[in-house]
Amino acid sequence: MIESSGGFHNGRKGVRAFRPGDMNERIYDKKKMILGDLGILTCALLWGVSFAATKEVLKYMGPLWLLTFRFAFSFILIAAITPKRVNNTGKRDLKVGGIIGFLLLVAMALQTIGIQYTTTGKSAFITACYVVMVPFITWAASRRNPGLKAFVASAICLVGMGAITLDETGMGFGLGEMLTLGCALAFAVQIVVIDRMAQDRDALTLTMIETALSAVACVVAALIWEPLPTFWSPAVVGWMAYLVVGCTLIPYSLQIKSQQLTSPTHASVLMIMESVFALIVGIAFLGEPMTSRLVWGCGLIFLSILITELDVAGFTKMRRQEA
Protein backbone atom coordinates (compact mmCIF):
# COMPACT_ATOMS: atom_id res chain seq x y z
CA MET A 1 0.00 0.00 0.00
CA ILE A 2 1.08 3.54 -0.60
CA GLU A 3 -0.52 6.76 0.35
CA SER A 4 -2.86 8.53 -2.00
CA SER A 5 -1.72 11.85 -3.44
CA GLY A 6 -3.59 13.59 -0.69
CA GLY A 7 -2.07 11.47 2.07
CA PHE A 8 -3.92 9.20 4.48
CA HIS A 9 -7.51 9.96 5.39
CA ASN A 10 -8.21 9.35 9.05
CA GLY A 11 -11.70 8.30 9.99
CA ARG A 12 -13.38 7.11 13.16
CA LYS A 13 -12.81 3.44 12.37
CA GLY A 14 -9.67 3.31 10.29
CA VAL A 15 -7.12 4.79 7.96
CA ARG A 16 -7.65 4.67 4.21
CA ALA A 17 -4.92 4.22 1.64
CA PHE A 18 -4.45 2.85 -1.85
CA ARG A 19 -3.01 -0.57 -2.53
CA PRO A 20 -0.33 -0.75 -5.26
CA GLY A 21 -1.70 -2.18 -8.49
CA ASP A 22 -5.27 -1.78 -7.28
CA MET A 23 -7.62 1.14 -7.91
CA ASN A 24 -9.54 0.37 -4.73
CA GLU A 25 -8.77 1.88 -1.39
CA ARG A 26 -7.69 -0.27 1.52
CA ILE A 27 -9.16 0.55 4.92
CA TYR A 28 -6.71 0.26 7.79
CA ASP A 29 -7.96 -0.36 11.30
CA LYS A 30 -6.21 2.29 13.39
CA LYS A 31 -5.65 0.02 16.40
CA LYS A 32 -4.20 -2.73 14.22
CA MET A 33 -2.10 -0.14 12.42
CA ILE A 34 -0.55 0.90 15.74
CA LEU A 35 0.26 -2.76 16.45
CA GLY A 36 1.82 -3.05 13.00
CA ASP A 37 3.94 0.04 13.58
CA LEU A 38 5.10 -1.28 16.96
CA GLY A 39 5.97 -4.59 15.32
CA ILE A 40 8.09 -2.85 12.67
CA LEU A 41 9.81 -0.76 15.37
CA THR A 42 10.64 -3.97 17.26
CA CYS A 43 12.18 -5.40 14.08
CA ALA A 44 14.30 -2.26 13.77
CA LEU A 45 15.55 -2.67 17.35
CA LEU A 46 16.48 -6.32 16.85
CA TRP A 47 18.21 -5.61 13.55
CA GLY A 48 20.02 -2.61 15.01
CA VAL A 49 21.94 -4.88 17.37
CA SER A 50 22.85 -7.18 14.48
CA PHE A 51 25.59 -4.84 13.17
CA ALA A 52 27.71 -5.47 16.27
CA ALA A 53 26.89 -9.18 16.21
CA THR A 54 27.84 -9.49 12.54
CA LYS A 55 31.15 -7.67 13.03
CA GLU A 56 32.05 -10.04 15.87
CA VAL A 57 31.14 -13.27 14.05
CA LEU A 58 32.94 -12.20 10.86
CA LYS A 59 36.21 -12.35 12.79
CA TYR A 60 35.92 -16.14 12.77
CA MET A 61 34.16 -17.06 9.51
CA GLY A 62 33.31 -15.77 6.04
CA PRO A 63 30.06 -13.91 5.30
CA LEU A 64 28.54 -16.78 3.33
CA TRP A 65 29.11 -19.25 6.18
CA LEU A 66 27.64 -16.73 8.61
CA LEU A 67 24.49 -16.45 6.48
CA THR A 68 24.36 -20.24 6.03
CA PHE A 69 24.25 -20.85 9.78
CA ARG A 70 21.90 -17.93 10.36
CA PHE A 71 19.33 -19.05 7.79
CA ALA A 72 19.70 -22.81 8.35
CA PHE A 73 19.19 -22.68 12.11
CA SER A 74 16.22 -20.34 11.65
CA PHE A 75 14.58 -22.84 9.30
CA ILE A 76 15.28 -25.73 11.66
CA LEU A 77 13.70 -23.86 14.58
CA ILE A 78 10.55 -23.02 12.63
CA ALA A 79 10.20 -26.58 11.32
CA ALA A 80 10.71 -27.99 14.82
CA ILE A 81 8.23 -25.63 16.47
CA THR A 82 5.52 -25.92 13.83
CA PRO A 83 6.11 -29.15 11.83
CA LYS A 84 2.63 -28.95 10.27
CA ARG A 85 3.73 -25.93 8.25
CA VAL A 86 6.26 -28.07 6.39
CA ASN A 87 3.54 -30.49 5.20
CA ASN A 88 0.90 -27.82 4.59
CA THR A 89 3.01 -25.53 2.43
CA GLY A 90 1.24 -24.82 -0.86
CA LYS A 91 2.42 -23.74 -4.31
CA ARG A 92 1.39 -20.14 -3.64
CA ASP A 93 3.43 -20.12 -0.43
CA LEU A 94 6.45 -21.49 -2.30
CA LYS A 95 6.11 -18.84 -5.00
CA VAL A 96 5.72 -15.90 -2.64
CA GLY A 97 8.28 -17.21 -0.15
CA GLY A 98 10.72 -17.89 -2.97
CA ILE A 99 10.51 -14.35 -4.32
CA ILE A 100 10.79 -12.77 -0.87
CA GLY A 101 13.59 -15.17 0.02
CA PHE A 102 15.57 -14.32 -3.12
CA LEU A 103 15.37 -10.61 -2.36
CA LEU A 104 16.31 -11.27 1.26
CA LEU A 105 19.28 -13.37 0.20
CA VAL A 106 20.55 -10.68 -2.18
CA ALA A 107 20.13 -7.94 0.42
CA MET A 108 21.74 -9.85 3.28
CA ALA A 109 24.64 -11.15 1.18
CA LEU A 110 25.47 -7.67 -0.12
CA GLN A 111 25.20 -6.15 3.36
CA THR A 112 27.25 -8.86 5.10
CA ILE A 113 30.01 -8.82 2.49
CA GLY A 114 29.97 -5.04 2.29
CA ILE A 115 30.32 -4.45 6.03
CA GLN A 116 33.79 -6.00 5.84
CA TYR A 117 34.96 -3.07 3.70
CA THR A 118 33.25 -0.15 5.43
CA THR A 119 32.37 1.07 8.91
CA THR A 120 29.30 0.02 10.87
CA GLY A 121 27.94 3.58 10.78
CA LYS A 122 28.30 3.92 7.01
CA SER A 123 26.74 0.50 6.52
CA ALA A 124 23.76 1.48 8.68
CA PHE A 125 23.26 4.80 6.88
CA ILE A 126 23.51 3.42 3.34
CA THR A 127 21.21 0.51 4.19
CA ALA A 128 18.71 3.07 5.48
CA CYS A 129 18.56 4.58 1.99
CA TYR A 130 15.87 2.01 1.16
CA VAL A 131 13.49 4.38 2.94
CA VAL A 132 13.78 6.94 0.17
CA MET A 133 13.63 4.23 -2.51
CA VAL A 134 10.31 2.70 -1.39
CA PRO A 135 8.04 5.58 -2.55
CA PHE A 136 9.67 5.53 -5.99
CA ILE A 137 9.32 1.75 -6.34
CA THR A 138 5.69 1.78 -5.19
CA TRP A 139 5.04 4.70 -7.54
CA ALA A 140 6.44 2.68 -10.45
CA ALA A 141 4.40 -0.37 -9.42
CA SER A 142 1.05 1.40 -8.95
CA ARG A 143 1.34 4.51 -11.17
CA ARG A 144 -0.02 6.47 -8.21
CA ASN A 145 1.96 9.34 -6.69
CA PRO A 146 2.68 8.61 -3.02
CA GLY A 147 2.27 12.26 -2.09
CA LEU A 148 4.61 15.04 -1.06
CA LYS A 149 4.49 14.07 2.62
CA ALA A 150 6.16 10.71 1.98
CA PHE A 151 9.01 12.33 0.05
CA VAL A 152 9.51 15.11 2.59
CA ALA A 153 9.52 12.66 5.52
CA SER A 154 12.00 10.37 3.80
CA ALA A 155 14.29 13.27 2.91
CA ILE A 156 14.28 14.62 6.49
CA CYS A 157 14.91 11.16 7.85
CA LEU A 158 17.90 10.64 5.57
CA VAL A 159 19.37 14.00 6.56
CA GLY A 160 19.04 12.96 10.20
CA MET A 161 20.67 9.63 9.47
CA GLY A 162 23.52 11.41 7.73
CA ALA A 163 24.06 13.64 10.76
CA ILE A 164 24.19 10.60 13.03
CA THR A 165 26.39 8.26 11.04
CA LEU A 166 28.74 10.39 8.93
CA ASP A 167 32.05 11.61 10.30
CA GLU A 168 33.83 14.85 9.48
CA THR A 169 35.54 13.35 6.44
CA GLY A 170 32.24 12.60 4.69
CA MET A 171 31.26 9.39 2.96
CA GLY A 172 33.42 8.11 0.12
CA PHE A 173 31.97 5.32 -1.99
CA GLY A 174 34.24 2.30 -2.15
CA LEU A 175 33.47 -1.40 -2.62
CA GLY A 176 31.77 -1.73 0.76
CA GLU A 177 29.55 1.29 0.16
CA MET A 178 28.53 0.15 -3.32
CA LEU A 179 27.64 -3.35 -2.10
CA THR A 180 25.59 -1.89 0.75
CA LEU A 181 23.74 0.43 -1.62
CA GLY A 182 22.72 -2.65 -3.62
CA CYS A 183 21.53 -4.14 -0.32
CA ALA A 184 19.32 -1.08 0.26
CA LEU A 185 17.72 -1.44 -3.18
CA ALA A 186 16.98 -5.13 -2.57
CA PHE A 187 15.37 -4.35 0.81
CA ALA A 188 13.22 -1.61 -0.77
CA VAL A 189 11.96 -3.99 -3.45
CA GLN A 190 11.29 -6.65 -0.80
CA ILE A 191 9.09 -4.25 1.20
CA VAL A 192 6.93 -3.56 -1.85
CA VAL A 193 6.77 -7.26 -2.83
CA ILE A 194 5.65 -8.26 0.67
CA ASP A 195 2.93 -5.63 0.52
CA ARG A 196 1.68 -6.76 -2.89
CA MET A 197 1.96 -10.53 -2.54
CA ALA A 198 1.99 -11.56 1.14
CA GLN A 199 -1.18 -10.02 2.55
CA ASP A 200 -3.10 -13.32 2.67
CA ARG A 201 -0.14 -15.58 3.48
CA ASP A 202 0.96 -17.04 6.82
CA ALA A 203 3.99 -15.04 7.98
CA LEU A 204 5.80 -17.95 9.66
CA THR A 205 5.35 -20.20 6.61
CA LEU A 206 6.88 -17.56 4.34
CA THR A 207 9.74 -17.07 6.80
CA MET A 208 10.36 -20.83 6.80
CA ILE A 209 10.50 -20.91 3.01
CA GLU A 210 12.71 -17.86 2.58
CA THR A 211 15.20 -19.02 5.22
CA ALA A 212 15.35 -22.55 3.78
CA LEU A 213 16.01 -21.37 0.23
CA SER A 214 18.55 -18.80 1.42
CA ALA A 215 20.38 -21.40 3.52
CA VAL A 216 20.71 -23.79 0.56
CA ALA A 217 21.99 -21.05 -1.74
CA CYS A 218 24.48 -19.79 0.87
CA VAL A 219 25.94 -23.20 1.76
CA VAL A 220 26.54 -24.00 -1.91
CA ALA A 221 28.29 -20.65 -2.42
CA ALA A 222 30.25 -20.99 0.84
CA LEU A 223 31.58 -24.45 -0.07
CA ILE A 224 32.82 -23.04 -3.37
CA TRP A 225 34.31 -19.71 -2.27
CA GLU A 226 35.07 -19.80 1.46
CA PRO A 227 37.14 -22.02 3.81
CA LEU A 228 35.36 -23.93 6.54
CA PRO A 229 35.01 -22.17 9.90
CA THR A 230 37.65 -23.54 12.25
CA PHE A 231 37.22 -21.70 15.59
CA TRP A 232 34.25 -21.22 17.85
CA SER A 233 34.25 -19.33 21.15
CA PRO A 234 31.38 -18.93 23.63
CA ALA A 235 31.04 -15.31 22.50
CA VAL A 236 30.73 -16.34 18.84
CA VAL A 237 28.13 -18.97 19.72
CA GLY A 238 26.17 -16.37 21.69
CA TRP A 239 26.27 -13.79 18.89
CA MET A 240 25.29 -16.45 16.34
CA ALA A 241 22.36 -17.52 18.51
CA TYR A 242 21.22 -13.91 18.61
CA LEU A 243 21.57 -13.56 14.82
CA VAL A 244 19.49 -16.72 14.33
CA VAL A 245 16.69 -16.04 16.80
CA GLY A 246 16.76 -12.32 17.53
CA CYS A 247 17.72 -11.05 14.09
CA THR A 248 16.26 -13.66 11.74
CA LEU A 249 13.51 -15.92 13.09
CA ILE A 250 11.59 -13.35 15.15
CA PRO A 251 11.90 -10.14 13.09
CA TYR A 252 11.41 -11.70 9.64
CA SER A 253 8.15 -13.29 10.77
CA LEU A 254 7.16 -10.14 12.64
CA GLN A 255 7.94 -7.94 9.62
CA ILE A 256 5.59 -9.87 7.32
CA LYS A 257 2.82 -9.94 9.92
CA SER A 258 3.25 -6.26 10.79
CA GLN A 259 3.20 -5.19 7.14
CA GLN A 260 -0.18 -6.87 6.86
CA LEU A 261 -1.45 -4.31 9.38
CA THR A 262 0.28 -1.08 8.34
CA SER A 263 1.39 0.75 5.19
CA PRO A 264 4.79 0.40 3.44
CA THR A 265 5.54 4.09 3.96
CA HIS A 266 5.06 3.68 7.71
CA ALA A 267 7.14 0.50 7.59
CA SER A 268 9.99 2.04 5.60
CA VAL A 269 10.36 5.10 7.84
CA LEU A 270 10.07 3.12 11.08
CA MET A 271 12.59 0.56 9.84
CA ILE A 272 15.16 3.33 9.47
CA MET A 273 15.28 3.41 13.27
CA GLU A 274 17.42 0.29 12.91
CA SER A 275 20.39 2.58 12.34
CA VAL A 276 19.54 4.67 15.39
CA PHE A 277 19.43 1.56 17.55
CA ALA A 278 22.73 0.41 16.03
CA LEU A 279 24.30 3.70 17.07
CA ILE A 280 22.84 3.47 20.59
CA VAL A 281 24.37 0.00 20.95
CA GLY A 282 27.70 1.48 19.90
CA ILE A 283 27.44 4.20 22.54
CA ALA A 284 26.30 1.86 25.31
CA PHE A 285 28.64 -1.08 24.67
CA LEU A 286 31.46 0.19 22.47
CA GLY A 287 32.09 3.52 24.18
CA GLU A 288 31.26 5.72 21.18
CA PRO A 289 30.83 9.41 22.16
CA MET A 290 27.58 11.38 22.41
CA THR A 291 27.81 14.46 20.18
CA SER A 292 25.63 17.44 19.26
CA ARG A 293 25.37 15.98 15.75
CA LEU A 294 23.86 12.86 17.29
CA VAL A 295 21.28 14.90 19.22
CA TRP A 296 19.94 16.94 16.31
CA GLY A 297 20.20 13.97 13.96
CA CYS A 298 17.91 11.95 16.24
CA GLY A 299 15.59 14.96 16.43
CA LEU A 300 15.26 15.04 12.64
CA ILE A 301 14.48 11.33 12.54
CA PHE A 302 11.82 11.75 15.22
CA LEU A 303 10.33 14.64 13.22
CA SER A 304 10.19 12.55 10.05
CA ILE A 305 8.33 9.80 11.92
CA LEU A 306 5.80 12.34 13.24
CA ILE A 307 5.27 13.68 9.71
CA THR A 308 4.59 10.16 8.47
CA GLU A 309 2.38 9.05 11.35
CA LEU A 310 0.27 12.17 11.90
CA ASP A 311 -2.32 13.66 9.55
CA VAL A 312 -2.74 17.11 11.09
CA ALA A 313 -5.22 18.31 8.49
CA GLY A 314 -7.37 15.19 8.85
CA PHE A 315 -7.27 15.37 12.65
CA THR A 316 -8.31 19.06 12.63
CA LYS A 317 -11.17 18.35 10.25
CA MET A 318 -12.40 15.46 12.40
CA ARG A 319 -12.33 17.62 15.55
CA ARG A 320 -14.34 20.33 13.78
CA GLN A 321 -16.95 17.78 12.71
CA GLU A 322 -17.23 16.49 16.26
CA ALA A 323 -17.68 20.06 17.53
Record keyword descriptors for this entry.
323 residues, mainly alpha, 3-stranded antiparallel beta sheet, disordered N terminus
Order of helices and strands: EEEHHHHHHHHHHHHHH
Sheet with most strands: strand arrangement: 1-2-3
Which of globular, elongated, flat, extended, rod-shaped describes the shape?
globular
- Ranges where pLDDT stays below 50 over 5 or more residues in a row are 1-24, 312-323
Q: State the end-to-end CA separation.
A: 32 Å
Share of β-strand residues: under 5%
| SS summary, helix count | 14
Helix content: over 70%
What is the structural class? Answer: mainly alpha
| Sheet with most strands | 3 strands, antiparallel
Number of domains: 1
Output mean pLDDT: 76
CA gyration radius, whole angstroms? 20 Å
Number of β-strand runs: 3
Main location: membrane
Protein name: Permease of the drug/metabolite transporter (DMT) superfamily
Pfam families: EamA (PF00892)
Membrane topology: Multi-pass membrane protein
Quick summary of this structure?
This protein is mainly alpha-helical and 323 residues long. It has helices at residues 30-57, 63-81, 84-87, 91-114, 120-127, 130-142, 148-165, 175-197, 203-225, 234-259, 264-271, 273-286, 292-309, 312-322; strands at 9-10, 14-18, 25-29.
Account of the 3D structure:
Helices cover 73% and strands 4% of the residues. Helix 1 (30-57) crosses helix 12. The longest helix is centred in the N-terminal third of the chain and has 28 residues, at 30-57. The chain is mainly alpha-helical. The radius of gyration is 20 Å and the shape is globular. It has one domain. It has helices at 30-57, 63-81, 84-87, 91-114, 120-127, 130-142, 148-165, 175-197, 203-225, 234-259, 264-271, 273-286, 292-309, 312-322; strands at 9-10, 14-18, 25-29. Strands 1-2-3 form a three-stranded antiparallel beta sheet.
